[in-house]
Amino acid sequence: MNGSDIIWIIIIALFLFLIFVGALISWIVDLSRELKYINMEIKRCDGKEKKMWIKRKRRLFLAFIPFFRG
Question: Model-level pTM?
């Protein structure tokens, strides 16, 4: 391997890492928005509808567990 090959490998690895970090940040922002919406709906509702939103919030937190289908 030449010095230029190592530089290209480092550049590609850095690029892939930045893509991964961007996707992770996007996922966290979407999760935060969904959680805010669910909390607003929980405060607005009562009865069966409130229980439904609480279950939905629980499923949202269970999404952190890999391979969970809820």
Answer: 0.70
